[in-house]
Model the fold of this input.
Amino acid sequence: MIPSPAPIEAVSQRLASFLDTRAREWSGFGPEATVFVENAASTLSGGKRLRARFCVTGWQAVADHGDAPKTPSGDVLAAAAALEIFHAAALVHDDIIDNSDTRRGRPAAHRALEAEHTASGWAGSAEAFGRSAAILLGDLLVAWSDDLLEDGLRDAPHAAGARDVYGLMRREVTVGQFLDIAEEAAFVTAPDAEHAERALRVASLKSARYSIQHPLLLGGALAGADAAQSAALSAFGHPLGLAFQLRDDVLGVFGDSAVTGKPSGDDLREGKRTVLVAYTREALGPAERRTFDALIGDPTLDAAQVAAAQETIAASGALTRVEGLIDAYADEADRALRDTPLAAGPVEALRALARDATARAS
Done:
């Protein structure tokens, strides 16, 4: 069964209350501050609330073990909402790094702020303003995520363990983001045979741990998870997180823009050195590989060039290999939930979330 919507609605309500307070807090500092805060709040609109769902379900898996189902406590609702704010911050910075124009079918934050500059008739470069303002907007969201987390942990009985998980998550995703952009340049100096392994390292740090494993562990920590329960959540969360990121990589090349909210083939234009790209290069001869490499990272790729790259990837067998890897990681995650010291109902909910995370179109 998929988790009852009630806990996620409660997370959304906690998030909305927090954002309303922040808006009132800055309402007296002029129209520019209002624009800034409103744009920050707008980044929390939409999305699947995936990290919040895993956090709450991780809490339930521990809290309900050997007992009747419990209503999620205020500390885990605040932590789940804080995860969503931190995720929004990461997306804002990611879109700046990748020069992405859209996010969830709407202008990316730096483009929205660029448009605010133009509409206001301000002096200087609208594009430079948008990028600079969005960097600060992402920083504000990081600060907000900390504020909300700490507010929720004020009287929490297991605050120390939760802080440890949250801090580790923040450090790992930051290093993972750097490794992601570094790989776009460093791949030329690394042996071709190592590219897939290097791409998986990035996927682990930048996405797998941060998207699924750490939200689960954060929820578990707030419920007072013991070592065996934390190990079970981790053994499930990490391979599922890798499967989730590999699905994201496939969608970044082959996804329907009407569903993903981003242009088809955007990962190709951005030069993402994913496992999909690494497997493709392994299957190509030297001349074909040079032609393929010339396409990856070219921001001017048109629809015909994207289609040619897609055909090359599919014909190489790379897409089939990645789909097989997704299935293998998903199976590993499922096996990790067998005979675990976790509550049966939430374990089934985790299985449903796993299916949602890997068999998706956006």
